[in-house]
Amino acid sequence: MGAAGASTDEMAGERRQLLNVAYRLLGSLAESEDAVQEAYARWYALPRSRQDEIVSPGAWLTTVTGRICLDVLGSARARRERYVGAWLPDPLPDHTEWDHGHGTDPADQMVLDESVTMAFLVVLESMTPAERVAFVLHDVFRYPFAEIAGILGRTSAACKQLAASARRRVRVARAPVTAAEQADAVRHVKEAWEAKDIAALIELLDPAAVMTADGGGMVGTVLRPIEGGTRIAQYMVAIADKAPGFELLERSVNGVPGLVAQHAGTVMTVASFDVADGRVTRIWAVRNPEKLRPWVRDGGFVRPVV
Questions:
Q1: Count of CB atoms within 10 A of residue 121's CB?
Q2: C-alpha torsion 21→22→26→31, nearest 10
Q3: Residue 93: beta bridge partners?
């Protein structure tokens, strides 16, 4: 059956799936929304006779979205070289934890699973655009390599090789921890940070831990990653000293336990953590206000659900 039976509501219903695909490919909510909007624009620009020939409009939209994302990824490296400081993916809130209403914002359309954790997205950033598209579409969304081949303009066999290469990066990058282990580590970091206890923080951080912050040149933060548990602990306490009255909230960040720092009721930083053997090995702190928009709504801040 062609698109003749596809209603406007049915076409609009594909939007959530497309946003989820695009975010995992791009790591940016704004770029994901733009890619999906462009895909829909191309659909509605087709003559009705051409729409009727398309057996699965959803698959067509996914293919077009994938191609748009591939183009965006191809130019992203150059743009990120001009980015002020380190670039990190947009952090995602869990809308059930925040009383801000939800619906049309792309962040509210995201399925929070292991494929959107900050650790996972950072690994995806290390892949080539073709590897990322092949891996995300096949391993995360279960699209057949024959369809992925049409997006990448390569053979199915070549797409299988790309996905396999990407899969090796993911396996090498990290070992999974339980949600309870992650939550315990984050809670202890929160308590030590609030107490400005450098010794306790050093004990909680892996000696080879790395902290990366993303301010985008819009707010003050370190421009290069901080390496070493001791240096990170000292930096965290220095931040607390400079912001008396700051409040730390234990909240889900990209589907796993993280911390949200508020000052005077405004979300200033969203921090994600990677944990191994009970110690924090990586901290990703997003401070760029543009990336915190899903966390900052309705008059400048979101109210946590108590």
A1: 22
A2: -160
A3: 253
CA nearest to 208, candidates 220, 195, 226: 226
Q: What is the pLDDT of residues 249-278, one digit of tens each?
A: 999 999 999 999 998 888 999 999 999 999
For residue 56, the 8-state DSSP code is: -
For tokens 């909240």, name the residue. 251
**Rounded to an integer, what distance in angstroms lies between the CA atom of residue 284 and that of residue 47?**
46
Alpha-carbon distance of 39 to 115, in angstroms, equals 23
Please name the residues in contact with 42: beta carbons below 8 A apart, sequence gap of 6 or more: 64
Report the distance separating Cα 22 and Cα 70, nearest Å.
10
Q: Report phi then psi at 110, rounded to 5.
A: -80, 135
Structure tokens at 272: 């994600």
> C-alpha 80: how far from its chain's center?
16
List, for residues 73-126, the tens digit of each pLDDT value: 999 877 888 899 999 999 999 988 866 555 567 888 888 899 999 999 999 999
Which residue has 């659900």 as its token pair?
305
Distances from the Cα of 197 to the Cα of 48, 233, 251, angstroms: 66, 8, 22
Which 3 state secondary structure label does DSSP give 222? coil
Q: Looking up tokens 């620009």, which residue turns up?
A: 45
The helices-and-strands tally (H runs, E runs) of the chain is: 12, 8
Contact (Cβ atoms closer than 8 angstroms) between residue 15 and residue 61 = no
Q: Which helix H or strand E contains 283, and what residues bound it?
A: strand 279-286
| DSSP state at residue 220 | -
Instruction: Report DSSP letters for 232-275, one per residue.
Output: HHHHHHHHHHHSTT-EEEEEEETTEEEEEEEETTEEEEEEEEEE
Question: Is beta strand 226-227 parallel, antiparallel or unpaired with respect to 256-263?
Answer: unpaired
What six digits make up the tokens of 298?
Answer: 């309705």
